[in-house]
Structure formats: structure tokens, C-alpha cells
Amino acid sequence: MAEAIFWFNAFIAVLTAAVVVLHRNPVVEALALALHLCSIAVFFVLLEAPFAAVIQVILYAGAIMVLFLFVVMLLDPGGEGKAGRAGKIQLAATLLGAGAFLAALLPVALAAGAGELPPPVHPGFGGVRTFGQLLFTEYLFPFEAASVLLLSAMIGALYLAKRELD
Amino acid sequence: MPEMIDLFAGFGIIPTAVKIGILIGLVMTAVAYISFAERRIAGFIQERIGPNRVGPLGLLQPLADGLKFIFKEEIIPSLAHKPTFILAPAIAVTTALTTFAVLPFGGPFEAWGKTISPMVADLDIGVLYILAVASLGVYGIVLAGWSSNNKYSLLGGLRSTAQLISYELPMTLALVGVLMAAGSLRLADIVNAQMNSAWYAVAMPLGAFIFIVSAFAETNRLPFDMPEAEAEIVAGYHTEYSSMKFAMFYMAEYMNVTMSSCLITLLFFGGWHLPFVEGMLQGLSQPSRAAAHAAIFAGKTTFFIFFYIWVRWTLPRFRYDQLMRLGWKVLLPLALANIFYVGGAILLGWF
Amino acid sequence: MVPTGHFLALSAVLFTMGVIGVLTRRSALVIFMSIELMLNAANLAFVTMARGGPAMEGQVFAFFVMAVAAAEAAVGLGIIVAIFRRRKTTDVDQVAQMKW
Asked: Which chains border A (3 or more CB–CB pairs < 8 Å)?
């Protein structure tokens, strides 16, 4: 059962990623990316990370992608996607490079966890309580630094999007 | 991979399918009769009689409405983006229905030799699941506004989306107060925690007020329904929708109202507990007690649905900038203050 | 039960698709979306290794990646909107000159 979910979900993830990379209409691409993010959340659930999965949906698919959709609709409401594609040489070079990259990466990836089933985990793994304990004890400094980062990003975005008063 | 992937929570596929069937049946019937109740109560508040012709006391009115919607002509604007035009109401209804999966209608009880848990999925992260699915419901609205190829719809859709994501913040922060007091994310645990201490509406009134106001904004109900106001923006994001697709938006709104009422009941008003009744129920057998719990829960939820309708026909509408100012400048700081208050109360041992 | 290698291989494939998207497309918004694809592929790898450990640190790191991605999306989209206001286009080949 878990395997069926994995393969179906992997198919959806790869399909929506292909739509993002290849489609012409930016609104359709943004929607495909939102669906992709939800499929990654399903992977997180399969990997015993329920809190990460829910945060992925709330944060990524529910907030960041809505922001993307807003910007896409304001900049290109017709959805024609005026910017086209790269030329043929650039495309060939990219595909060759990406192919080589993937050929180098896949054996390493498959060898890193080949065939073995992951060890069993204690109950509460990936749960909110464990997450909270880690975030507030061992990783307190990165947590506070992330909040300062978000504050500065918020100020930066507000300043950038402000209309200039003539 | 253990319990996480045990899709049917140890109960098996047949009981889960039965529960889902019962739940969908209940929710659809409730939605149909809420629309009827709204028109009758609106009539009562406006000193007139609502619909009372179809069937005894007008009770078959939702059936007539449904038939009308089915037989109406489907109009799709020629320049609309068809796939998203048809997808948008589907997303709205699907997300609205999916949130009901984690709502408990009572504690687990023994019947016919088996333990039955009256909820479809007993997640450890119950409340966060509801927030996640609710934040996905935004897509239905923004896609409806965009795909109609109509300036007013786009504007209404973007406004409504901005309103929804703005009011998610005070709602979540008011929820954090409840989670701090209850110490768990499971809805059943939150209700049981209220049995030992006072109801959270009494213990943290500011949090309850913020949550209820934000729930009104999240469901696009008056006084926050600027984006779909009939007179102002030509019905906003669902201007171009007709017959069944419009009916789906309509249903999705009432499902959201029902779900918010259930949430308010569970989180702040004790769920299926009534303080004086608990003692009386101890003597009954388990299935009867479960039925009594479900009835209490249904009663409280019905009161809150009535409250939603009551407020709609009483208060005037907020202007859009007033609405956004309220969400960001008033409710958000108050919600943060509420977190401090709850933290202090926990330190003092009130919970 | 799915072995860890499958998750990692999928993560590699998704990352490569994101790289192709960044290098091939010319619209700034689509390049941004491809960057999000790459970030999510990396998150998937993190959570996979957290399960393989088993160590919670991978999930905590994925959480921080999400927070940073949110900040980066906000600022990046602000930059794109600002560029669009000046140049009326989001084609990165046409805004490649830093002159005016």
C-alpha cells in the first residue's frame, strides 16, 4: 500500500514539475507548482514527518504560492507568457549538462540507501512535541535568527513594492 | 512504516467508508437546510415570512432550489480559461468537505463488542490539518476570479484572497492560546482538557472573540463579505458562474460556516460536554452516552450557525480598507497579547 | 516499504528538472518557480535522510529551509515587481543590462 502511494505520488510530482518547466501559461505553472508542493507533503507523511508535511502545505502551498499567483496575475493577467524560450544551442547545452549531472548523481543516490528498509523509529518521531523540544533547546539560535531574517525580508519586500511618490 | 501509513487507523476500510458516507450525507443535508434556515431567519428579522410554500412549512424548499440549479442553463464565457473555470468550484467544495474528516463528534465508545471512534481520522496534528486544508481553499476563489476573464471578478477574487490570508494570522494566533492551554493538537484532547478546567471561551475570552471574528472573515460572511457583496462589485468573484457551479460555491460557503461553527464549539465551548449533564450521563450505557454527546455537540453547533445567520442580517458591511485595517492593526496585536495572557495564566496554574 | 534510495533518486530527478527550468526559461517568474522546485527537492532529501538516521535534525533543517524560502520568495517577488514597473517586461534577457 505504501509503495502504491509512493509511485503514484512520484508520478504526480514529476508530472507537475514538467508542467512548471515546460508550459507557456504562468498561471497554470503556478497551479502545477502548488500541486507539486502538496505531493512533496505526501512524501513527508510517508517519511514519518507529519509536522513537516502540514507546515509544507500551510506555508508553501497555502501562502508562498498564493503570493506567486498574486504577482503572476498582476504582471501577466492574460497568461500569454510573453517571454519565450532559450535558443537551440542553449537548450542542447542545458540538456547535456543536466543529463551528465543526473547520470553522476543517480548512482550515488541509489547506492546511499540501496535496498535497505529504514530502521524503525520511536513513537513521537516527527511529531510536534519532539520538533518543539529540538527547536527550543538545541536549535534555539537558528530559530531566533530565522525570525530576524523573516522580519528583514518583510521590511525589504514592503520597501521594494512601495510605489514611488512623485 | 507503522501507524502513520495505517490508512484506516486500525479500523479497516468498511467502517471508515461507512463513517465517510454518514458524514457526507449529514453535511450535505445540513448545508441544504442552512440555506433554508437563513431565508426564514432573515424573514423573521426583517418582519416578514420567508419561503413557506413548498411542502409543509416550506421545508422542501432546498429540494426545489436544487432542482432549479440542475435545470438552469450552464453558461461559460467564451474567453474564459475553461480548465480553471471548471476547476475552481471543485477546489472550493473539496477543501470545504475535507476539513470535516478530523472533527470528533464524541469520545470513543464501546458498542457491539468493538471500539468506535466517531471521527473519520484521529490525527495527532488534528488542528493543523484543518488550518492546512483551509489555506488551500483560497485557491478556489482566486482561480474563480482569474479564469472568468472579467475585471470585476479578478478584483473581487484578489481582494477576497487577500482578506482570507490576512485573517488566517489572528485566527492561528488565537488558536495558539488554546493549544498552549490544552497541551495537545488533537481535537479530542482539547475537548477533554476543557472538561477539567473551564470552557476556553470563559478562560480566554479575548482569544475566543478574536477567533470568532476571524472565522467570520475566513468564511466571507457579513460583516466581512465585501468581495462578494451584491451591490458593490457585481457579486465579485462568482459573477460569471451560473447554475450548478454557482451552487457549488454557495454550498462551499455554507460548508465553511458549518465547519467554523463546529470548530468554535470544539475549541472554545466545550465540544460535547455540558458541566451539569456529565454526571447524569454516567449511568447510561456507552452507545446512549455517545448519542447524547453527539446531540449536545449538534445542538451547540446549530446555535453557532444561527449566530452566523443572525449577525449577517444585523450588521452592516465593512469597507475593504476598514476590513484589512481591522485584521492587521487591531486583531493581530490583540492575538499576540492573548498569547502572553495565556502564558501567564499557565504559569499561575490556572490551566 | 520503500527503500531510502528511491526517495533520494526522486529528489535528484526533481532537482535536475529545476535546474533545466532555471537555465532554459526566460521569464523571471518561471525561473523563480524552478528555484522553488530545487529547494523542495533538497527538502525531500533532508527529510529522507532524517528517516534513514533516524535523526530529527533533518526535519528541523527542512523547516528552516522552508522559512528561508518564504523570506526569499517575498523579497524576490518584490524585486520582480519593481523591475516590471520600470522595464515593463520580465524577460531576463532584456533586463540583463545594469545600465539604467
From this structure: B, C
Give the domain C4-87 fold: Helix Hairpins (1.10.287)
pTM attached to this predicted model: 0.90
Q: Does A131 touch chain C (CB under 8 A)?
A: yes
The full set of domain ranges for chain A reads 1-79, 124-166
Alpha carbon distance, N-terminus to C-terminus of chain C = 57
* A vs C: CB pairs below 8 A: 241
A130 touches chain C (CB under 8 A): yes
- Indicate the domain borders of chain C: 4-87
With a CB-CB cutoff of 8 Å, which residues 18-37 of chain A face chain C? 18, 20-21, 26, 29-30, 33, 36-37
**Among A14, A26, A116, whose Cβ lies nearest the Cβ of C3?**
A116
CATH no., domain A1-79: 1.20.120.1200
- What is the residue extent of each domain of chain B? 76-347
DSSP string, chain C: ---HHHHHHHHHHHHHHHHHHHHHB-BHHHHHHHHHHHHHHHHHHHHHHHHHTT-THHHHHHHHHHHHHHHHHHHHHHHHHHHHHHHS--BTTTT-----
Nearest Cα of chain A lies from the Cα of C95 at a distance, in angstroms, of 12
Q: For chain B, list the contacting chains (3+ Cβ pairs, <8 Å).
A: A
Q: Is the peptide bond before B223 cis (omega within 30 degrees of 0)?
A: yes
Per-residue pLDDT of chain B (351 residues; tens, 9 = 90+): 334 445 555 567 787 888 889 899 999 999 999 999 999 999 999 998 888 888 888 888 888 888 888 888 888 888 888 888 889 999 999 999 999 988 888 877 777 767 777 788 878 888 999 999 999 999 998 888 888 877 777 888 888 888 999 999 999 999 999 999 998 888 988 998 888 888 899 899 999 999 999 999 988 887 887 766 654 555 566 677 777 888 888 899 999 999 999 999 999 998 888 887 777 777 677 778 888 888 899 999 999 999 999 999 899 888 888 889 999 999 999 999 999 999 999 999 887
The answer to whether the Cβ–Cβ distance between A48 and B4 falls below 8 Å is: yes
The partner residue sitting opposite B125, judged by closest CB among A38, A48, A51, is A51
Cell of B127: 488542528
